[in-house]
């Protein structure tokens, strides 16, 4: 079994895989921090939120144009993105127990794989980022895995998480301008004297 994806598909450069892994690790961490069982959050709601947030962040990142090698092939259903043309998906599972239904490529992913079948014997591999961690924990282990058409693992690279630094936004050194608040004008409220009973007669 090969453990370096870029030897089977040169488009899967280690630098690109690190960037995607960094995004997935960061987003999952953000979602875990917002998990609140005390208000009714469940394992299902956490899983759905983690998946949807990762999916939408990936779409947003592709639209920024900062990673020209990243594109979206299938935005709904079997969400599939591409790294320099190679279809890729993501899941939270044990790499050895990925459900067979997950390995079914999207129509767009399959068409893209067919484009490489004449130039690579590994064009039919189903590539996945696999997060192997308890459902309510930040990422403990992550892999980039290539599965054959018969669901066998052909390539499995464990992503060194210690090398992944959270991608934080730049902090501006400029301090916001203070807002001047003028004191509210004070007014003494006039109180009308009450009429005595003998005046009303």
Give an account of the 3D structure.
The chain has helices at residues 5-8, 14-33, 43-64, 107-115; strands at residues 70-74, 80-83, 86-92, 126-132, 141-147, 153-158. With 201 residues, it is of the alpha+beta class. It has one domain. The chain has a 6-stranded mixed β-sheet, with helices on both faces.
What would a concise description of this structure say?
With 201 residues, the chain is an alpha+beta fold.
Secondary structure: elements and pairs:
Layout: H1 5-8, H2 14-33, H3 43-64, E1 70-74, E2 80-83, E3 86-92, H4 107-115, E4 126-132, E5 141-147, E6 153-158
Parallel strand pairs: 3-4
Antiparallel strand pairs: 1-2, 2-3, 4-5, 5-6
Distance between the termini: 107 Å
Structural class: alpha+beta
- Which strand-content bin applies to the residues? 15-25%
- Main β sheet profile: 6 strands, mixed
Unreliable spans are: 167-191
Q: Cα-atom Rg, whole angstroms?
A: 28 Å
- What's the number of helices? 4
Q: How confident is the prediction overall: mean pLDDT? A: 82
Features:
4 helices; 18% strand
């Amino acid at each position: 079994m090969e453990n370096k994806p870029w030897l089977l598909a040169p488009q899967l450069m280690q630098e690109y895989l690190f960037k995607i892994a960094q995004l997935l690790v960061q987003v999952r961490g953000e979602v875990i921090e917002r998990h609140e069982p005390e208000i009714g959050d469940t394992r299902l709601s956490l899983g759905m939120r983690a998946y949807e947030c990762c999916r939408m962040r990936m779409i947003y990142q592709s639209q920024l144009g900062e990673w020209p090698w990243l594109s979206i092939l299938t935005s709904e259903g079997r969400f599939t993105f591409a790294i320099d043309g190679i279809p890729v998906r993501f899941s939270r599972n044990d790499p050895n127990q990925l459900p067979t239904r997950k390995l079914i490529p999207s129509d767009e992913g399959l068409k893209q794989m067919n484009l490489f079948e004449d130039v690579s014997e590994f064009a039919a591999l189903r590539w996945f980022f696999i997060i192997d961690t308890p459902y309510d924990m930040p990422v403990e282990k992550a892999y980039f895995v290539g599965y054959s058409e018969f669901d066998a693992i052909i390539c499995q690279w464990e992503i060194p998480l210690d090398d992944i630094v959270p991608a934080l936004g730049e902090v501006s050194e400029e301090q916001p301008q203070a807002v001047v608040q003028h004191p509210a004008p004070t007014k003494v409220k006039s109180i009308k004297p009450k009429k005595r009973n003998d005046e009303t007669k």
